[in-house]
Design a protein that fits this description.
By secondary structure, the chain is of the alpha/beta class. It is built from 14 helices and 18 strands. The longest helix is centred in the N-terminal third of the chain and has 19 residues, at 2-20.
């Protein structure tokens, strides 16, 4: 008995020594590995985007038009659309990715669950997924698709944005991995941005939400986190949280925030009446229901002349099947499968477009049958959409024999509109690399959705040997 007790003591002592020598995972090492993994995920090079762009387009004509009387202008809305729609999604919600983004981009949808981008790419999806069978958007007026884009708020100071994704392909014992997370994770935000959407500040982690100094301090903390997580992309938009005007007042003193939205004490935006750059203006929005959007709210504006229409700006928290139905209705009624009249974009993109319209310039010079446009797009801080529409009044597409441009122009399309010919000019610096990424994604996983994405981003490019090469790869 005594020997048995001694053996137990010795065994316990050895076990203790063994356990004490176990090397538990180092928290800093784990966080570093997570950041390295995240940094390896593809993200458009926003940190090195074109700024203060000057580009030239040369248009050869057949000589049937007097080019000296052709007028150049940047219209009030991109693609010459007749009304403007915004959607801002508050509270950094998980379903901003798995519902809002997914519906617009033709990805799987679920009525009960959410998923992350890693699960999507691995094919590990909820059991009840369904598909719309198409993407949602408008056109650029020349036949190219332009998908709807929206704004999602972020919560950079909350650690749940760093949550890990569990991928368990074929595991059906339970579906806990598809339960809604506390909010968006950074990997999902990266994918949302890759598709042209915008981001905004909302709540910050201050202990005093009435202290302007504290809110500004936490704007700066949040911005630093955003810049770090998103490889240098900054945030310039605020969606006011909880009707708290202290956030708005603080934003007026925080230079990077340039455009804001709230429900009360706001400016009504009439796009065809805008005469300034809207800098620091608090634009109005409403928390409408899907039924409102598919009914009276939209109809009331569209009964008016376009010059009298207010922008429809919808604030939402969570989205669901009803909101998917509303987005589908917008596409089928006023988007590419309807009358193609709506520009459904993010606050960021509209703000930049209007800024270019107010502060930019289009200069023209004529030499015999050649018309040269020099386009100057002065940028503000954290600008990422160097893209405009230019209308040439008095010229038709049929009069044009060829079009060429300088290297600053990476995307270009043109076609007739009711007053002449319109040019859609995109000067995003890495548009070719961006399209190449989606072609490679299709080559690695040949799904119909990946093929649609590849065509979508390649079709943004101007005509070139590189564009043709990419198109040949996805035939």
């Amino acid at each position: 008995m005594k020997r048995k007790i001694i053996n137990i003591v010795i065994f316990s002592l050895l076990l203790f020594l063994s356990v004490s020598c176990v090397k538990f995972p180092d928290a800093d090492k784990i966080n570093k590995e997570r950041e390295e993994k995240r940094s390896a995920a593809y993200l458009y090079a926003f940190n090195n985007e074109s700024q203060n762009t000057v580009a030239e387009i040369t248009i050869q004509t057949d000589g049937s038009t007097d080019l000296s009387v052709v007028d150049a202008e940047i219209p009030y809305l991109k693609y010459n659309k007749s009304w403007l729609f915004f959607l801002t999604q508050d509270d950094c919600k998980h379903d901003a990715f798995s519902c809002t983004w997914a519906a617009i981009n033709g990805k799987p949808l679920s009525r009960q669950y959410c998923y992350d981008v890693a699960q999507l790419k691995a094919g590990d999806l909820p059991p009840d997924v369904y598909y719309l069978g198409k993407t949602l958007g408008s056109t650029d007026g020349t036949g190219n698709e332009v998908r709807f884009s929206f704004t999602t708020t972020l919560a950079p100071e909350w650690k749940w944005m760093d949550a890990e994704t569990i991928v368990q392909i074929g595991y059906k014992v339970d579906y806990a991995r598809f339960y809604m997370k506390s909010g968006l994770i950074w990997d999902n935000v990266i994918e949302i941005l890759n598709y042209g959407n915008g981001i905004a500040f909302h709540d910050v982690k201050t202990s005093d939400e009435n202290s302007l100094d504290s809110i500004i301090k936490h704007y700066k903390i949040s911005q630093d986190i955003i810049l770090s997580k998103l490889s240098g992309r900054g945030c310039k938009t605020l969606a006011e949280p909880n009707g708290n005007k202290a956030y708005v007042t603080a934003a007026l003193s925080y230079d990077p925030i340039q455009t804001m939205t709230a429900q009360n004490e706001t400016v009504v935006l009439y796009p065809f009446q805008v005469k300034d750059d809207l800098h620091k203006q608090l634009l109005g929005r409403g928390f409408y229901s899907p039924e409102d959007i598919m009914g009276g709210t939209t109809e009331a504006q569209l009964k008016l002349r376009k010059e009298e229409r207010a922008a429809i700006h919808v604030g939402v928290h969570g989205t669901n099947y009803d909101w998917v139905s509303a987005l589908l209705w917008l596409n089928d009624t006023y988007g590419k499968d309807g009358d193609d009249s709506v520009w459904f974009t993010s606050m960021e993109e509209y703000y930049e477009y209007n800024y270019y319209r107010i502060h930019g310039s289009v200069q023209k010079s004529v030499n015999n049958n050649t018309l040269k446009l020099t386009i100057n797009l002065p940028s503000g801080k954290y600008f990422y959409y160097p893209s405009i529409t230019v209308n040439l009044k008095g010229l038709n597409k049929g009069n044009i024999t060829s079009v060429s441009s300088t290297d600053q122009v990476t995307g270009l399309s043109y076609g007739d509109y009711e007053g002449g010919v319109m040019f859609n000019i995109n000067c995003r610096k890495f548009l070719v690399e961006h399209a190449t990424h989606f072609v490679e994604q299709y080559e690695n996983n040949k799904t119909n959705s990946n093929l649609a994405d590849a065509h979508y981003f390649v079709n943004m490019l101007k005509e070139s040997a590189k564009k043709q090469e990419l198109l040949n790869r996805i035939k």
